[in-house]
Design brief:
- The complex is a heterodimer of chains A (139) and B (129).
- Chain A has three helices and five strands; from the N terminus they run βαααββββ.
- Chain A is of the alpha+beta class.
- Chain A has a single domain, classed as Hotdog Thioesterase (Thiol Ester Dehydrase, Chain A, Roll), CATH 3.10.129.
- The longest helix of chain A is centred in the middle third of the chain and has 16 residues.
- Chain A starts with 11 loop residues before the first strand and ends with a strand.
- By secondary structure, chain B is of the alpha+beta class.
- Chain B has a single domain, classed as Hotdog Thioesterase (Thiol Ester Dehydrase, Chain A, Roll).
- In chain B, 18% of the residues lie in helices and 39% in strands.
- A five-stranded antiparallel beta sheet of chain B has the order 1-3-4-5-2.
- The longest helix of chain B has 12 residues.
- The chains are: A alpha+beta (139), B alpha+beta (129).
- Chains A and B meet through helix 1, helix 3 and strand 2 of A and helix 1, helix 2 and strand 2 of B.
Chain lengths: 139, 129
């Protein structure tokens, strides 16, 4: 849980890592309602030019949101969250979500946070989400 | 994707924020309580079929990717409440052989007040893109 009064611009969110598995992506498809076979059927994914199924963009964004919520605490309210999806994520890759406080609004008791999600590919960090953003209002 | 479809407003869709669906969504992302910020994707996907099956768009789903997503809450979503989803095509653009469509959905509560907005960009990749 984070207290607004303790925040300064530049405060980093603790990173949150998760390995992407078929089981979790299927669980997401059921929970989120996006049953596009691109995320469940390797043949369909290969026909679309991928090596195999890829995670939903919203799986990656949901993980990014979990990083923000885990940091802010259940009493805080995420007023805005956004992401641009730059790179498909394959099964077995590890998503690492992070963020940094970019500005604070003392009147609203809200923080604007820059967020991102990285994966390590052959020793190089790539960004499935690079300039995500969240605005969080604290109690 | 016919650019003339830009501005199309679709009939409203009713969606109940069922606690079981919220719990299933929380479980996927390890959230202990509350409504996860990206839960709005569920009412979105309930409403998408009538947009995506619009014959004027003539979408080839095997070439459609999710480009970006933005959610804005005017107040927290409450478990158990009924919302009405108003979808419209905000923009259709072509760039480098691919087509970009921005769909905006406005979610209103029982009093007709806007609770949240969802803005998604879908990309239909061109042949060879």
């Amino acid at each position: 849980m984070t207290f607004f009064d303790g925040l300064v611009v530049g405060t980093e969110l603790p990173t949150l890592a998760r390995i992407v598995t078929r089981e979790d992506v299927k669980a997401y498809a059921d929970a989120g309602g996006d049953q596009n076979p691109l995320h469940q059927d390797d043949e369909v994914a290969r026909a679309a030019g991928f090596d195999g199924i890829i995670a939903h963009g919203m799986f990656t964004m949901g993980h990014m949101a979990a990083c923000v919520v885990g940091w802010a605490g259940a009493d805080a309210h995420v007023q805005r969250i956004s992401a641009t999806f730059r790179s498909p994520v394959s099964m077995g890759e590890t998503l690492v979500a992070g963020g940094r406080v970019r500005s604070l609004d003392p009147q609203e008791r809200s923080a604007r946070v820059e967020t991102w999600v990285t994966v390590d590919r052959d020793g190089r960090a790539e960004f499935p989400v690079k300039r995500g953003e969240a605005v969080v209002r604290f109690p | 994707m016919d650019p003339a479809a830009e501005g199309t407003v679709y009939p409203p869709v009713t969606f109940v924020v069922e606690p079981e669906r919220v719990a299933a969504f929380r479980a996927v992302f390890g959230q202990a309580e509350g409504v996860p910020p990206t839960f709005l994707t569920v009412p979105e996907f309930t409403t998408f079929p009538q947009v995506l099956e619009d014959p004027r768009l003539d979408l080839d789903f095997s070439r459609v990717l999710h480009g970006s997503e933005e959610y804005e809450y005017l107040r927290p979503l409450r478990e158990g409440e009924t919302i009405t989803v108003h979808a419209r095509i905000d923009a259709i653009r072509r760039k480098g052989g691919s087509a970009f469509m921005t769909v905006v959905m406005e979610m209103a509560d029982a009093d007709g007040a806007t609770v949240a907005l969802a803005r998604s960009t879908l990309i239909e990749r061109g042949e060879g893109a």
